[in-house]
Amino acid sequence: VRYLPSWLPGLGFKKQALQWRRDLDDLASIPFNAVKAALASDDAPDSYVAAHLRSHTSKPNADTSEEEIMWSAASLYTGGSDTTIAGLTAFVLLMCLHRDAQKRAQEEIDKVVGNDRLPTFADMADLPYVGACVKETLRYWTVAPLGLPHRAMEDGRYHDYDIPAGSTVLANIWGIMHDETIYSDPFAFKPERFLSKTAGGLGEPDCVPTVFGYGRRICPGMHLAESSLWMYAACMFAALDIAPVYDESGREVPPVAEAGPGIISIPKPFVCDITPRSAASAVLGTQ
Where is this chain primarily localised (predicted)? Predict the structure, then answer.
């Protein structure tokens, strides 16, 4: 089949596969070449690719090739783009539905950060409730309900089930995140469950070691994903109000929390109202 032309009956898939290959190459090469061109004109902002290309240029015998830099950068934004979008969309949905949690997080940011700048990672330790909102989003709306498939390396047994070596094993991450023996009232959105008891919270187990998977197939970008979602959330809390829309009679119309099909749990399209909290925050939102 490899050497047969794509115009033969039944081999049209070869033409489609070739187009997919070109699309994949463009996905990696177009942004990479754009950074190279910007570097050549001394107009490149700081970025993962720019930093590695500068290092590569200053060290001609570097172990890392340009192709490795290009594809590693592509893996960063393709490998986690769908899950990050799903997590951020779920966060917006849940903040629209739970405005009491949103208000408490905004009050925390106003107290710690003020209203003349956006939060930074240096503020993270002083914004525990913001972090709790992010963790509760990851727990409540489990983005990857079954994680990635694993393979049993040897014969095993789980309760009354025999698991032969070579079997495909999936972890029910959604089930763990909604297990009432682990999390009280698991179908309620409660960020305070991730605050310590001394801070007035419930002191329940951290969800992060579970939602990103296990073992060799744990998400390699878990720290980047959690940090990115925290920064998105903190900046949105600082600058924006997320609220339901109103119908023609002036009644609030909350969005419906439903997931679309697929192995990644992303909310179905919904409508909400996102506005600057104030004139000052409107300026912050452009930074």
Answer: membrane
